[in-house]
Amino acid sequence: MLDVLVIGGGVVGCAVARELSRWRLRVALCEKGADVCVGTTKANSAIVHAGHSAKPGSLMAEYNVRGNELYEQLCADLDVPFRRNGSLTLCLAAEDRPKLDELYADGMANGVPDMRIIGHDEVLRMEPNVNPEVVAALHTPTGGIVCPYELTVALAENAAMNGVEFHCEAAVEGLTSIVGGGWIVHTRKGDFRTRTVVNAAGLYADVINNMVSTTLLRITPRRGEYWMVDKAYEGAFTATLFQLPSAMGKGILVTPTVDGTILIGPTADDIDDKDDLSTTLPGLEQVLKVASQTWPGLPRRSMITSFAGLRAHLPSHDFVVGEAPGAPGFYNAAGIESPGLTAAPAIAEALCRQIVAVLKPAARADFQSKRPPVRRFRKMSDDERAAAIALDPAFGRMVCRCEMVTEAEVRDAIRRPVGARSVDGVKRRTRAGMGRCQGGFCMPRVLAILSEELGVSPLAVTKDGGASTILTARLDGVKEQSK
Amino acid sequence: MTALTTICDVLVIGGGPAGMAAALAARASGCQDVLILERESELGGILRQCIHTGFGLHIFKEELTGPEYAARYVERVKEAGIAYQCDTMVISLSAERVATCVSPSHGLQRIEARAVVLAMGCRERPRGAIGIPGTRCAGILSAGTAQRFVNLEGLMPGKQVVIVGSGDIGLIMARRMTFSGAKVEAVVELMPYSSGLKRNVVQCLHDYDIPLLLSHTVTAIRGKERVTGVTVNQVDANLRPIPGTERDFACDTLLLSVGLIPENELSRAAGLELDPMTTGPVVDERLECSVPGIFACGNVLHVHDLVDNVSMEAERAGQQAATHAAAKRGGTTGTGDNAGGNCARIAVRDGAGVRGLVPRRVSAEALRQGALILSFRPDRVYRNAVLLVEADGVVVNRLRKRVVVPGEMVELTIKPEFFLETFPKQELSVRVEAEDGRIGAKA
Description:
Oligomer: heterodimer
Number of strands of chain A: 23
Distance between the termini of chain A: 41 Å
Radius of gyration of chain B: 23 Å
Shape of chain B: globular
CATH architecture of the largest domain in chain A: 3-Layer(bba) Sandwich
Strand content of chain B: 25-35%
Number of helices of chain A: 12
Distance between the termini of chain B: 52 Å
Number of helices of chain B: 9
């Protein structure tokens, strides 16, 4: 019998699993997809929000500000790139100026530190590429940027190191309560008997909740479309640039990423299909149009990719965190839309505290808070590179030229705990395929390494699990190559 | 652990057709110390996967496959005893011509060269660059990646195919996929003309009854795990999709052949001035870049139509690199214009209808002393074209061509007698007009 089964391998589920692994508990995580980090977590703005745009008194506000505080240590422990680059919320029209004061007041109420409203000249001194018509801006120095997939993978790895079991392709199909306490969770990978359940199922958290709780939830997928700008523009901005928020969200932002590219987006469109990650012509056009109000020099010809993500939106527009009504031992983390990435460590902390209060486990003396550092060739000095190749020649074979990822790193990403099982899994862990050629060069190489490491035919290697195979057949007369 | 820096006369980065021809020419010009660095496990570059014929008509006067064409050069490289190192990727290049490279067997090396020839070729534009909306499922790949799978690894990337873009690789892959048992539903081209060679349109599409949809674009990609279909729309004169012209194609694969871009990471790293039109480095008539002693040729300079032209251009770069290296070795750094890279020269400007003239700068001496080859691509199809050569804005010569098309590079030879002693002082430009009086779109 498990103590806790976490449903969902996004940033919240993995953060909860890792937090629980500090305690003497039997914890497992089941994920519908073929890898962790394949839902809402993989496609969002990658921002660690300061906390001024959440409604005072909401759970969003509370967990945002607390999550932000936790990020520094968490990312240091897990060897995940994180930068407190600060954010600016731009006021581009004089009549909107009072809205900055409202944001400032909300930020004060939420406990956001060190905020300042700054004028036109100071904004342009800080960010010379911003629209010169800017009137003023709210500067929030605690805002940051992080890589959501590196963080989630790192949380999962670290949780696995500390004993959490991971089960992918294990979609939950039903829950049965056990008389006298506990749950049987029926999944595609079999049944799990567990004392408690954490529902961190993202877009599907309503479906899971509604299987057991007397309070029904209804999540609407709210689509956001994005463009990624080539890292040739690295340095164009230091801070994350928001425009004033609207009813649909924080609007279209322009932000550097920790990897040197610039991300612009998202749109906000409520749709019906929780799996529809398609981009649209009007959506992509809108992103360019609105973002160019922030960045008039936006280089339309230097986009390397576009993508869409789905936010798990609840009508209440607040997080639902805690034990679900009518379902003892079943804990929700539902409606986790922006600032969900920021809030994830705080939600994990809160849920873990509640579960520990009930299960009363002992702390694990051997908990390892750090994961072994990932050796990234692109970040090494030449001397470190020479030394790395001398020890492992696979560091001398370049697999992804755009992002400078070597064969050694790809193999490591597959071999680590909760390792990559698909081309996109390798991409999320190493950045191979994230660069300006978008996998044209590295994809066949990554596919070959996966085939070798996993001991499967190249025809069985997938882009991202399930039926997403890349190759369909061998040419007639071509024999199966011996390994 | 610190890497030692070795020194060589001419360092050639890239062992494809450009690199091999440049190295051979450098050797033929008397340079004994030439080194080729190649990132793949053997020489040959992209030719290794181009198993179709059509290579070598100009240089060998016969029709060869890509691997055959490459093999002839590999043979020559070996016969000439030119040093080459495969599985080696150059990861940075400084303006002082120090290349840093890595390989599994040699580790990290630093090589300081008296002259460098850039011959890294080009890469394909990805989907993101053209922003086709839709899902990002499996089954979407560039035509060159598909070509590698099929021709080098014997693996098929799909059964039912739509190809976006009628560049040469797209056309060749339409035929290749058909040969290999796949059904190619259509080749979709945004422009009103193919961007590939005429012979490829005929031999790869017409001969196999594959529809070429000109002035069309893909407006949606469907499929969650793997592509299940695409929507294609006709476009208007501004290249915008026309509502109501949607056509759905079922397919499991979408191949992209939407343009090639010079591999300019190292060119950027070395601080070379880049040309916004070709996106390759700016060079003078000796193919020298804005940093002295760095030369460029082949597709890293500008994307060519025929490999024969790549080889011929690369020979010029190799000779010049050898000359530069010999001068450096002899202690001179060149004279006059040679002293400071290609900076103090007459500018070559694209006039109306002309895109990406190479070279971008020429010396007064080059114009006076002999034939100078300029190349470019027109911005559209021109029938009964007139190419007007201008010196400081004054037309000095008119050259007629029956037809010029964007899919084929136009070469034109500028001779001293064109100028009747009115040599340009600041600027040489070329524009194109069709005899029907339609002039080129503003460049």
